[in-house]
Structures are given as structure tokens and as C-alpha cells.
Specification:
Aminopeptidase, 209 residues, alpha+beta, 21% helix
């Protein structure tokens, strides 16, 4: 279960270019009134705007503390949501992440930046002893993002896939001890991972869409 600070919609995480925040009903492609200029469904093989029912389910997950779903939003006003990260409880005190990014924004380092910010927050707040991920076996860009964030490849396996039963995946893991050691990269001239902190205001269904 997540602590109370995360179970409030004012919770957000800041990185250099992004806010990671709770989903809002206005993020849905079928929001009322309709949001002009937004595609009605998945965008290619990457992130697709969710339906209002999915947004409601994600918010309910967060309120219960059973999962956290964070929208990726650029700091510049008027820019569309460009992706989402799901964080759910895994076994052995670990947490599992899943992520999607709009295809037309890949190659800019945005998801690497977002994941580093989230991992930094998760370990500093002691939300988990480790973080795991299982991208699709064919998702080379997803593998690249995880490796840049310090994850270790553990081998191949199978994972549930919406409408497809099971699909091949690659298993990755980053434990807190490894993450702590990576923070010392700056001493060797390399930038440390996750130079961000959570920001709070006053006061489980990653499969959709």
C-alpha cells in the first residue's frame, strides 16, 4: 500500500522537463466536453489516450493505495499529455513499473528522465526494496530506457497481454543497493541518476486503454 501523501491527487513528481501527476478526467479522449485535436484511442504501438472509465479506475487505484498511475506532462502550458507510467505492488517488497510514450516523442530522453524521477522518489520514500519491469520482448526502445536507468536484465519470460493471453517479455530489476551505488556516478564525472524530488501541494488496470 502507498503512503497517504501519494494517495492524494495533489501529489506530483518534478523532473527537468516534466511533471508526473495523477490522471484527470480531462485527459480522457472521450472527456465531456470532447477534447478537440485528441485521437480517440491508441496511438500506433505506443501511448494512447485512455477512456474516461479507465481514468476513473486509475484514480480509484491511487485513492485505495493499491497502484499509482502517473501522466507525463510537459511543463510548457498547452502541451498534450505524452505518456503514462504505472506503478504497482510486486512480490518480495518490490514494485513493478510499466510505461507508454507517444511514438512521435521517442528519442528525446523523456521516458528515461521520467523513470529516473520516479525511481528516485520511490527509493527515497522507501516505497520499495526494488523495482521491476517486463517490457515486451520486441520493445527494444523500452529495454534501452531501462538499461539507461540502471536496470539489470534477468532473462526472458511471459506476461499477460490484453486480448492476447500471454506474450513474450524481458525481465528487468533494479534494487535499492544498486541504485544507491549509481548515485555516486557524479564523482567519476557522470551525471547521477534521478536528480529530482517529489512535490506535494497543500494539505489496477495498466492494461487500459
Amino acid at each position: 500500500m502507498f503512503p497517504d501523501i501519494i494517495r492524494d491527487e495533489v501529489f506530483r513528481i518534478e523532473s527537468r522537463r516534466l511533471w508526473l501527476r495523477w490522471p484527470q478526467m480531462a485527459d480522457a479522449f472521450d472527456a465531456d466536453p470532447p477534447m478537440t485535436g485528441r485521437p480517440a484511442g491508441p496511438v500506433g504501438e505506443g501511448y494512447g489516450l485512455p477512456a474516461a472509465a479507465c481514468i476513473a479506475a486509475w484514480r480509484a487505484d491511487a485513492e485505495r493505495g493499491s497502484a499509482l498511475h502517473l501522466m507525463l506532462e510537459e511543463k510548457a502550458e498547452g502541451r498534450p499529455v505524452l505518456g503514462i507510467i504505472h506503478l504497482t505492488a510486486a512480490r518480495d517488497g518490490a514494485m513493478a513499473i510499466d510505461f507508454r510514450l507517444a511514438p512521435n516523442r521517442r528519442g528525446e530522453g523523456l521516458m528515461t528522465e521520467a523513470l529516473q524521477a520516479l525511481i528516485h522518489t520511490a527509493f527515497l520514500m522507501q516505497l520499495a526494496s526494488a523495482v521491476s519491469a517486463a517490457p515486451a520482448a520486441a520493445d527494444q526502445k523500452g529495454r534501452d530506457v531501462l538499461e539507461r536507468c540502471g536496470f539489470t536484465y534477468l532473462g526472458s519470460g511471459m506476461r499477460p497481454a490484453p486480448g492476447a493471453g500471454l506474450a513474450a517479455c524481458d525481465n528487468f530489476r533494479l534494487d535499492r543497493r544498486t541504485w544507491v551505488s549509481l548515485q555516486g556516478w557524479g564523482l567519476s564525472g557522470r551525471p547521477p541518476l534521478g536528480p529530482v524530488a517529489p512535490v506535494a501541494g497543500p494539505g489496477t488496470s495498466p492494461a487500459c486503454p
